[in-house]
Structure formats: structure tokens, C-alpha cells
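Bench notes, afternoon.
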Amino acid sequence: MTVLTSLLDSRLFINCGGQQVDVDGNTYSADLNPNGASTFFINKTGGWGYSSMGVSKSTDKPVQFIIQDTCNLTMTAAVLLETAHVAPISLKYYGFCFIDDNYTVTLHFSEISLSKKTSSTIRSTRVFDIDIQGKNVMKNYNIEEAKENANGDKILQYDVSIESQLEIHLYWSGDGSTDYPLNYGPLISAISVVPVPKPAKQPHKLSPALTARIAGSSLFFLALLLFLIWKLGCLGGKRSSKEELKAAELFPGGAYTFRQIKDATQNFNAVNKLGEGGFGPVYKGLLPDGISIAVKQLSGKSKQGIRSEELKSRLNWSTRVKIILGIAKRLTYLHEESKLKIIHRDIKPTNILLDKDLNAKITDFGDAKLNEGEHTHVITRIAGTTGYMAPEYAMRGYLTPKADVYSFGFVALEIASGRNSASYRPSDQTVYLLDLAYVLHEQGNLMDLVDPKLGTDYSWTEASANDVH
């Protein structure tokens, strides 16, 4: 069976029995497979296919399942009606990989098999039924007796709901002529499938009463907001140092909020500045209990964090393994143990938080998706961070929990190696961690990827398992 690799479709056009043609700006696919009896065919694009069944009564001439007649066709879509696909008993067309929506299915017909020169007393009658999505929409359809539209075409149109796959079935139900092989089986010239147009949304007008209520509520909340700002001391002029300290409600101990620090230093007043170092200025502060403190205000250019030096000394091998296992545990919960199975879609170091005991937590679920079943999702909008996305998701949009597992593996590699996903050399060359890991693996030196700051303080078995996986 052909493997379907195309993305979801929202339109389908087939020139049944004919070459590829362009009509009204739409390209109709060619349908030239000559086989008919007991045939199942899938178009090379994988977007549609058909099955044909039945054997005609024996004749001296070979039975043709693709027929053509260019005579006396003058209507607008004549090029679609010059050919047709016919079957003795059953002809079923399939459309694959549709976006779930409501569609208009248009079937084009032209009775080009029956000769116009044949006497009406001996001419045969073709009658067949039509089902769409398993539901009968037409019984005993006779192309010759059908009414033409304004353009001279004989068409049938139906609005149907499609969930992934479309099925159109034309079949002989026993009525009509059976004395000539091609005169009693279903025949069709073209198929088109397009989305049902969405009605334009009318702007919603607010009633005067609702407008008044909204305006009143807005004024109330504005007044409340101004009152709260005033109570916090942000309005009404500059307060004295004593008033600021009272409003802050300082507590004794080693942990203080930023508001408390601002109160203690009089909002980092230049009068209290003690000096300035490489990482920023230092200010004198006074707590309510009379204890003097010194506060360093980090410069924006400083790359020093409040826990960076502490973490460097604490991130030994066992701690790194603990963090990696913690991330794995959180992902297992999201993918398998939670009532709502979730795919995060953006696992990366900046979305991993550590508490005071360095237990890993996953954050930022803005791009998360529900895992709705066991089948591969096809997502039309790719989300995530370049460099951490699984290749099949980044390139083709196929999303499964394995995409998170790939990102987790990349994060684990960064933790074990102490490197970023991309680093830069003085020669302006960019070194990508994944490429470096591949080269070291090929050379048999994968352990060289372990963070050199660890020295020999790591488990060879754990490191090799982490780096390989």
C-alpha cells in the first residue's frame, strides 16, 4: 500500500477518465488507470484513490473502463465531460487526509457511452445509485434524463461532513438495461470537493443599557485601582523614610522582598551609596530593628546571578543525575499518568525550574497540546524552540510524546556535558552540541563529552547511558 506522506488537504479535484486539466483556476488530477474489474488504485500523490468491481456480460469487443467522446460538447466545463470512468457494477472513489470540516461535493456527469445515432427504440438505459459517506443521496440516477444547469452541465451537489476520509460510491442496483456491457454500470466524468464557505460574522452591537453598565464598571475599577495605588504610597508625593518602612511591614530573618530592600535603602538613594564594584553599586540599608545591611544592586551587564556561584559548587554528578531523573519523572506524569495526557512541545533548560533542594519542575505550558489518542497528530502550526525539536516534528509537523522525549534527551546532554546547545569559538565558528556528540561517538571518545569540571567524579555507566541515549 502507498504510504501517505502529504499534509492534510481541504480540496480535491479529479478528472475521471481524463488527463490533468485546469478549469476555473483549479487543477483536476488525471485519472487514467485502465484497469476496471476488481481493482484498487491509489493516486501517486496519496491524496485519493478508487476501487472498481464487477464483470460485464461477454462481448466480442474488449470492455473499456475509460471512455472518451468529444462530439457535441459546448458547455463551459466541456473538457471535464469529454471523458468518463465507468464500471460494470461498483465504482467507489476515496479522498484521504482531509481537514475535519463541512464540504461541498460536486459530481459531474455526461452520457458519452450511448451513441446519439442509435435508435431510441433499441437504446439502452443506464441507471445507478449514489452513496456519500455511507448514506444514500440518489436512487436510480439516469444521466440522460437528468436536468442541465445554466451552463449546460449535469451535476449533483451535496454538503457533507468529512472527518479525515471521504467516500463516494456509485453502484448498479439492478435497474436499467443489462443487454449491453457498458450501459448499466455507474459512470462519472469529474469530482470536485471544496469547503463550505463560512458565513461572514456580523459585528455585534452593544445595547445602550449594556454600554452604560460596561462604562460604569470601568469607572469603578479605575477608581479602585487609583485607591490601591494611593494606599501603596505611589501617589501623593514622596514619603519620609520612616513612613516607607512602616508601609513595608519588614520582618526579621535572612530573606527579604524587593519592596523591603527598597525601603531599607530608601529606594537605592544615592546618599546611601557606599561604592561600586565590577558587578554593580553597593548601598547602605537600615532595617526597622536597627540592623545595618549592605545591598549590592547587580549591573545589567553583569552575568552574575543570585545563585550562579552556589550552583556551580553544588552541581556535582549525583545532583545532575537527580535533575535529569526529575525531568524524566515529570514527563512520564504528563505523558502517561495524568488524567489529561499532555505533550509539552517546548522542553528546554529555561523551562526547567529548580527548587531549594534542586528538584526539577517543568514550567511554561503555553505551547502544550493534549495527546488525543494513540495516533500520530499532524499539527499545522509548529511550536517550540529551534535546536530542541525532534526532526520529524520540526520538518513535517508529526507530533507524539516522542517529540518531548527527544527534547529531554537534548537537555540531559547539556546537563551532563555542561555545554550549551551551541557555543562559539574565537574564529567565529559555531559548534553545535549534537554535532560534537556525533563526532565523539564515531571516534569512540564519547566520554570526552562529560563536563571536565567534574574531573573523575562521575559514574562511567550513568554517563555513557545518558550520552548514548
